[in-house]
Amino acid sequence: MKKYFTLMKCGMSEGIMYRSNFLTSMLANFIQVAVLFFVWKSIFAYQPVVSGYTWEMMRKYVFVSFLCNSALSFGFEMQAADKIISGDMVLDLLKPVSYRSIVFCRAAGTALIEFFFTLVLVGAVYLAVNGAAGITPIRLLLFLISLVLGQGIKLQIQYFFSLICFYTDNAYGVLKGREILTNFFSGALIPLAMFPDFIRTVIDRLPFSGIVYVPCSIFIGTFPMRECFEALFFQILWNVLLFLAGSIFWKKASSVISVYGG
Amino acid sequence: MNHIEVDRLSKSYHIAKREEGFLGAVKHLVSPQYEEKQAVKGITFSIQEGESVAFLGANGAGKSTTIKMLTGILKSTSGTVRVLGRDPFKERMTNAKNIGVVFGQKTQLWWDIPIIDTFRLLKDIYEIPEAVYRKNMELFMEILGLEEFLQQPARRLSLGQRVRADMAAAILHEPSVLFLDEPTIGLDVAVKQKVYEFLRYINKEKRITILLTSHDLNDLESLCQRLIILEAGNILFDDGLKKIYDLYPKAETLEEIVIGLFNRRAH
Fold it and tell me: Rounded distance, CA A138 to CA A124, Å?
């Protein structure tokens, strides 16, 4: 057990080491949030309700969704995939710990730091814009559980995509594809309730909504209590399914390792 | 007791066959052609506890591939491998506990955190008792001179410092077998001396079995009792290092013999 904890601590040290990297990319992304904020504001100036969302709800959604999606950043994922392509990951194979545990613990450590930085920034802006009204302890608790489960889903999807790099010579394209997929289908850009019905039925059968849309909806209260628990159940289910899928894929991918020369 | 047993081991790579130029690239896209390249062609050998064995061969002779199969990174195509009685690929993690590996061209140190943190991490990963950890660290400081750069992250180290630190990281958990793949590549004479002195010490005093590949013939002579020469995936020579002079009575140094062997390949 201790080894996993130490791995996480090293991941945290790395997260602190890369803080300026992360902070600049987060600030850049935050400009996108600011733009979204003002676009929504002008939309709601013409129409008080859009697909059941009011301006009150939307100005919360914009910030909470950003918080849900900023940890486990692209930079970290890229590093892991690069190690697969360059062959440096073989050194992780020479440890008496599974490769996935190394990747997951390291990512969890870094993500904690990333989350902390985002929370300070976004939390302050959120409170300045919305105040603390409407935050109840029970919703907050469910939100935190859902957030952690959502990060689990995101991490497992990232792991799955990084394994694809065993078969390709390029990581950037694979991971960008992953990023676009999760951003679009998780509700990071637009609340999923605003998608047309036929797209919704597809999205509801995919794991992505658990990353952003579910924790956000729990937090801002668009899900009634019953739906919250249902959503949490599906998040757990997806975590289990993705874990199994990751194990199967790893078995296949690890036997095609080909590291030439040095 | 045999620490390593290899029986008719072979490995072939599945390699994409591309024709040159743009048209070739398009052709490969439409109907990719592959060829099997045999890197190791059914080699058999065994290594006893406490032996120190040198693997010698031209670039591409199959040394690294063999080491990667012995360490459990690569899956063999056919034949059997046993390291300390285990199949290294099937029982990779158990095997990892009992072996140490140094790749001269790669590092297992964490790039951005102080190397002392990497050592502490290794201590927990391998579940090394505190007393053993302390004792080994003291030894490494003394022989390898790690003290001066323990607080630096790996990215700040010079190549010589990095290799010394990697060497320490590989045997911190006191493995029974140590694999080294070109550990002294690119090092200056002084560091090389230090590294070989260290390897001799752990081989003699700690009875760690050593299997290393290198192109440094003089140093191999001072460290290894046994020599295995690989050529194009086959074993060309496997005997006591001194015996190779009997085979080539005209040659004066090991270097001459090896150059002769490699030249023969070019023709």
Answer: 21
Q: Does the ipTM exceed 0.90?
A: no
- Determine whether the interchain pair A261/B59 forms a contact, defined as Cβ–Cβ distance below 8 Å: yes
Report yes or no on A49 lying in a domain: yes
Helix (H) or strand (E) holding A54: strand A53-54
CA distance A254 to A93: 10
* A168 and chain B in contact, CB less than 8 A: no
Q: Apex CA A253: angle with CA A251 and CA A258, to 5°?
A: 125
Q: Tally Cβ neighbours within 10 Å of residue A11.
A: 25
CA A135 – CA A142 distance, rounded (Å):
11
Stretch A130-155: mean pLDDT: 92
Interface test with chain B among A95, A105, A255, by most B beta carbons within 10 Å: A95
Which two structure tokens, joined as six digits, stand for A229?
Answer: 């628990």
| CB-CB neighbors (< 8 A) of B106 in chain A | 87-88, 90-91, 262
In a domain, residue A262? The reply is no
Share of chain B above pLDDT 70, in %: 99
Q: Which domain holds residue A139?
A: 2-256
How sure is the predictor about A260, in pLDDT bands with cuts at 50, 70 and 90? low
Q: What is the pLDDT of residues B152-196, one digit of tens each?
A: 999 999 998 999 999 999 999 999 999 999 888 888 888 888 888
Q: Is residue A261 part of a domain?
A: no
Residues of A with Cβ-Cβ distance to B99 under 8 angstroms: 94
Residue A188 lies in a domain: yes
